[in-house]
Amino acid sequence: MSAWPLTLERLSPGASASIMAINVDSELKKRFFALGLKEGVHVRVLRRGQFGGPLHLRVGTSELILRVQEASCICLATPFAATHPTTSSL
Length: 90
What we know:
It is a single chain. By secondary structure, the protein is an alpha+beta fold. The protein has one domain (8-76): Ferrous iron transport protein A (FeoA) (SH3 type barrels). It is 16% helix and 30% strand. The protein has helices spanning 26-35, 68-71, and strands at 16-22, 42-48, 55-59, 62-66, 74-76. A five-stranded antiparallel sheet has the order 4-3-2-1-5. It is globular. 19% of the residues are buried.
């Protein structure tokens, strides 16, 4: 499996990156925008659900849960290293 493009579902817990592109239909893109997910925004993966479950994310000061399938549509810029330890599973 290729390392690029890096998408949100491939980001490890504790890692963060900036959103480069969101490849979804216009209705879902509007919903993501309302949740704070848009190009240029910094996102951090706090935890991953077990057995391929959802991702627990921090976007700005908000936290949200996103399905892995939806996270795979969000392309990221180079990830940043974790600055503090986090819980790795729900």
